[in-house]
Amino acid sequence: MPSAVEFRDVCRFFGTVRAVDRVSMEIAEGEFFAMLGPSGSGKTTCLRLIAGFEQPTHGEVRIFGEGMGGVPPYRRAVNTVFQDYALFPHLNVIDNVAYGLMIAGRGRQERRREAEAALDLVKLPGYGGRKPGELSGGQRQRVALARALVMKPRVLLLDEPLGALDLKLREQMQEELKALQRKVGITFVFVTHDQGEALSMADRIAVFNEGRIEQVGTPEEVYNRPARPFVADFVGSSNVFPPEVTHAVAGRRAWASLRPEAIRIVGQGRPARVVATAFLGTATRLHLEMAGRDVTALLPRGAVVPEPGETIEIGWGDSDLHLMEGP
Ligand code: ATP
Q1: Which residues in the chain come in under a pLDDT of 50?
Q2: Could you tell me the residue ranges of all domains in the chain?
Q3: Whose CA is nearest to atom 29 of ligand 1?
Q4: 326 CA from centroid of ligand 1 (Å)
């Protein structure tokens, strides 16, 4: 079975800017796939290459096995939910949702029926008569989703779909989006710079850095077994040790990552000076200096917190030190 989306050695350059640089990846049908990376790392350009708003400078994008060279956006089995939702302010919700169906020449009754079914799906039944300006941010986001889903795309593209929402609503929508994706069963590809969002929603994550993919894997893989220093640092802010430090603390000459939550204060371990502490609610973050290096540790709630200036002894389990390829 062909992949829903496949990139074969895809580049997209803008003048001297290598926005996307030799990216190859496969997204399976039915997958919830995240493209995660810092600002400017090429995620949105990849999404636009799938949608057909951009063409590769080199390489090929395939959708369900078919090469997309020269295929315009409206002939692709994909639809996009934009970050700003791009709703028409003067149309009511039903007409916003049904807009694509109208352009496609469907009859009035069918449009209404399909739009109402899509609003049910995103849990907004009965909101059809309102204007976008009379909705909350979360409700507008659902309308944008309904408008994309009503076209029955085989792949739904989402550009920072929850970026405009406050934290609480974002967490609620993360669960809902995931449940919705399971229900409709179509492939979701979403762009985010929020690692927590990618970890909590995606089946697999591609971690982008400077136009390239550093690693593709399940949330568990990229978090627990980062392939490179960039992934370790970007996903979960791990402590990254260059080979000489790993050698000093573990006798192995390789890059390594150590999760802050794996570090414990022990009776006999490695001396570390406490530089600063920060209460985070669910944990306390310690900024430490060990062998001349900054190290971050997270103490669980209820642990005894040392004072800045104190020297403590720290330790971790052998398997917590994860060895990696170099940058
Ligand atoms: P963000 O999270 O900020 O949206 P991103 O990871 O999605 O970032 P892209 O929008 O894909 O990054 O941009 C990648 C690089 O390509 C950036 O350096 C950007 O300035 C550049 N770029 C993107 N589109 C264009 C364009 N149309 N013309 C010139 N440069 C562009």
Answers
A1: none
A2: 5-228, 237-324
A3: 14
A4: 26
- Report the pLDDT value the prediction gives residue 161, as an integer from 0 to 100: 82
Q: What CATH superfamily classification does 237-324 receive?
A: Nucleic acid-binding proteins (2.40.50.140)
Q: Evaluate whether the domain defined by 5-228 bears CATH number 3.40.50.300.
A: yes
Tell me the CA–centroid distance for residue 251 and ligand 1, in Å: 42
The Cα–Cα gap between 202 and 35 comes to 9
Dihedral angle of Cα 269, 251, 240, 231, to the nearest 10 degrees: -130
Model pLDDT, residue 327: 87
The confidence score (pLDDT) of residue 137 equals 84
Which residue's CA is minimally distant from atom 7 of ligand 1? 44
Residue 164's φ and ψ, nearest 5 degrees, are: -90, 0
Residues flanking ligand 1, CB < 6 Å:
14, 17, 19, 37, 39-45, 193
Separation of CA 20 and ligand 1 centre (Å):
9
3-class state of residue 47 by DSSP: helix
